[in-house]
Amino acid sequence: MSQSLRPIVISGPSGSGKSTLLNKLFAEYPGCFAFSVSHTTRNPRAGEENGVAYHFVTREDFQNLIAQNGFLEHAQFSGNLYGTSKKSVNDIGSSGQLCVLDVEINGVKSIKNSDMQPRPRFIFVKPPGLEELKKRLQGRGTETEESLQKRLDSVKEAIDYAEESGAYDHIVVNDDLEIAYEHLKGILIEDITKLQTSKLKKGE
Ligand SMILES: Nc1ncnc2c1ncn2[C@@H]1O[C@H](COP(=O)(O)OP(=O)(O)OP(=O)(O)O)[C@@H](O)[C@H]1O
Fold it and tell me: What gap in Å lies between CA 108 and CA 86, rounded to an integer?
């Protein structure tokens, strides 16, 4: 049963509140959700376990998997390849959890063009406005002036894409956090209930 649950693709501009919303969801429904494990060609850092932090692979293995159409999406960042394999998403489904993919706009486009079954549920988290977004990112204290400006520049592109009809199944406006959270929960509650019922039946 759980294999037929749709993976969740969540996207939205930096600072729109994806992590905040997902953390609330994971805390309220422990054991129901999991991120898929990505593949990368970069070297593991101290403490990073293969198969947990990432699947660490050689460039050759990565390219073979691309050739076999094994990736849902992949991209290159600072000289290294990163990607989400279809298998790693299906593995989460088979383990009885809902798979969550937190990806940026190009990842969303690739996943939309893929033959992934069941078809993922696409959710966009929309920030209330640029000024508010700027304040939040400044408040988070993770950005320099330069990285802040870079992030703000990509926001308009992401919002325009989201508002093209049919790009996402749902748009969650994150103005008031509680309202946004209830919206997100409402989208997923049927799947969460199915999952919990099947866990109860299995005596987990
Ligand atoms: N509805 C809200 N009202 C006020 N502040 C919020 C709201 N949602 C999130 N925040 C704050 O905004 C900041 C950015 O949120 P968060 O880190 O969840 O964004 P994100 O979309 O995951 O960003 P990134 O893609 O850069 O990781 C955080 O400091 C968070 O506490």
Answer: 14
Domain for residue 144, yes or no?
Answer: yes
- Alpha carbon distance 157, 155 (integer Å): 5
Q: What residues contact 96, with CB distance under 8 A and at least 6 apart?
A: 2, 195, 198, 199, 202, 204
ipTM: 0.92
CATH code of 59's domain? 3.40.50.300
d(CA 7, CA 199): 18
Residue 137 covered by a domain: yes
How far apart are the C-alpha atoms of 47 and 161, rounded to whole Å? Answer: 38
**Residue 182: inside a domain:** yes
Here the tokens at position 138 are 């400044």
Report CA(84)–ligand 1 centroid distance (Å). 24
Do the domain assignments include residue 202?
Answer: no
Q: How many domains does the chain have?
A: 1
Q: Which of 20, 135, 144, 182 to mutate to test the pocket of ligand 1 (most atoms within 8 A of CB)?
A: 20
**Residue of the CA atom closest to atom 12 of ligand 1:** 136
Residue 148 has pLDDT above 80, yes or no: yes
Residues with CB under 6 A from ligand 1: 12, 14-20, 136, 139-140, 174, 177, 180
**57-73 per-position pLDDT tens digit:** 999 999 999 999 999 99
The residue segments making up the domain with residue 117 are 2-197
